[in-house]
Amino acid sequence: MTFNRPExxxxxxxxxxxxxxxxxxxxxxxxxxxxxxxxxxxxxxxSTGMHVNEFDQLxxxxxxxxxxxxxxxxxxxxxxxxxxxxxxxxxxxxxxxxMSMAADIRIASKNAVFSMPEINLGIPSVLDSVLLxxxxxxxxxxxxxxxxxxxxxxxxxxxxxxxxxxxxDQLRETAEVFANKVVEKPFYTVRQQKELxxxxxxxxxxxxIKDSVNKFALTFSTxxxxxxxxxxxxxx
Length: 236
Known about the structure:
By secondary structure, the chain is α/β, with parallel strands linked by helices. 50% of the residues lie in helices and 14% in strands. The longest helix has 20 residues, at 60-79. Pfam families: ECH_1. This is Enoyl-CoA hydratase/isomerase family protein.
C-alpha cells in the first residue's frame, strides 16, 4: 500500500484514509494475503499524516468523527492477522507516525525524519502516541509531543524503535525480505502470535500468561506443529 501524493509529501485526505480502512478490512478477511507493506511514493516523504485542511472548521462532533477514523486505521494495522511492515522513507509525521507505531515491523531509510507536530496546531497527540514512550522512552516521547520538533532516524532508533535502518535504494527490497520470511511461517500461528501481543499489551501479567498457555494448547488442535516438527526432523 503506497501513499501516493508525492507533490504534497504524501499527506492524507479523509477520503484516502477511508480507502486505507476499507482495504485493511478486506485484507483482514483474506486467507491468501500474509503481509502488508506500507511505503510512500518518492524519496522525500513516507507520509506527513493528515492534510492540515482536514482540521479546518472542525467542531467537537466532526473532530471526534475524524479522529475515530484514524483510530480505526491504527487499530486495523495493529490487530489484523497479517503482519504489517512500514517501509519509512523520508518524513513520517503525525498520523503516519501513529500508524507506524501500530505496525509490527518498521524499516526506515537513513533520511527518515519523525515528528508529532500536532501541539503546534493546538491539538494534542493521541491514539498510538500512547505507545511512543514504550518505544523511545518517556523523556524523548515528552520532548516530541510537547515541542513538536523533528527527530532524525538515528536518535529515534537509539532505543530500538526501528527494526532496521537501510539506504534509500534498499528500503523496498529489505521490506520484501521481511515479508517473504513472514510468508514462510504458518499463518495460523502468526495470527495467534499477533493476538498474544495484544493480550500482553492490554492485560495484567497473570491473564497474559493464562492466555498464552491456552493458545499454546490450541495450536495442537491443528496439524501444524506436527508437520513442522516432522519437517524439522528430516533436516537433521
